[in-house]
Amino acid sequence: MTSPRRALIVIDVQQEYFEGVLKIQYPPRDESLANILTALEVATAQSLPVAIVQHEMPEGAPAFVKGTPTYELHPDIEAQLQPSWKRVEKKFSSVFAGTDVAEWLKSENIDTVSIVGYMTNNCDLATSADTEVLGFTAEILSDATGAINLSNEAGTVSAEQLHKALMVLYQSNFAAVATTSDWTEAVKSGSALPSNNLVVSAAQGNEAVG
Which of 57, 69, 192, 198 has its CA 20 to 30 A from that of 204? Predict the structure, then answer.
């Protein structure tokens, strides 16, 4: 089996998720940030291409307005920036929408996208869903991502419930799920992460729940 040709995509590790209304609640912010930094160290040591993504919204928006403090990258990410890393500004949830990220990945002969950053329930999900159409395999690091508490007309869900449920969803179809530690071992050995599919996940789900 051919070894995966990976790139690390670091999505929106911006101050909004540490100081704003969208503050990450689960896993704990300091833990997910530490694992994101570890993933960057591994990517650097293993010469993986890296993209650093920032979300931008127009003037007057409640978050991510360029030039405001919460738009900025977390200082720990800022301190690690390297000239070889691709910088991306996006206006949509998916890192592929309205950007040249897909073309960049193809130019680097990448077939596998490793996703870290925020949020599990929005930009990470949209990005992983888009990989199928674009012909990439997706991976997501469960402890280097994070979710927020949500409540609206449809109901209420805690960040922990949301994050854990979405990791099951990712593994069923959208992306192979792994801890940062397991991903690191896979990168070093050049191996693919274990994946599942919707049919097998459904059969297992029927057995587990039924």
Answer: 192
Q: How far apart are the C-alpha atoms of 82 and 94, rounded to whole Å?
A: 23
Task: Locate 134 and state its tokens.
Answer: 């674009």
Two structure tokens written together for 9: 């995509």
| Domains identified in the chain, total number | 1
Secondary structure letter of residue 67 according to DSSP: T
- Helices H / strands E in the chain, number of each: 8, 8
Range of the domain at 124: 6-209
| Distance from C-alpha of 201 to C-alpha of 29, rounded to nearest angstrom | 29
Letter string b/e over residues 12-38, b meaning 16 or more CB atoms within 10 A of that residue's CB: bbbbbbbebebebbbbebeebbebbbb
CA–CA separation, 91 and 173 (whole Å): 25
Report yes or no on 21 lying in a domain.
Answer: yes
What confidence category does residue 80 fall into, taking pLDDT thresholds of 50, 70 and 90? very high
Report the candidate in 3, 2, 8 with the shortest Cα–Cα distance to residue 49: 8
What is the secondary structure of 11-45 as a DSSP string?
E--BTHHHHSTT---BS-HHHHHHHHHHHHHHHHH
Q: What is the pLDDT of residues 133-178, one digit of tens each?
A: 999 999 999 999 999 999 999 999 999 999 999 999 999 999 999 9
| Inside any domain, residue 17 | yes
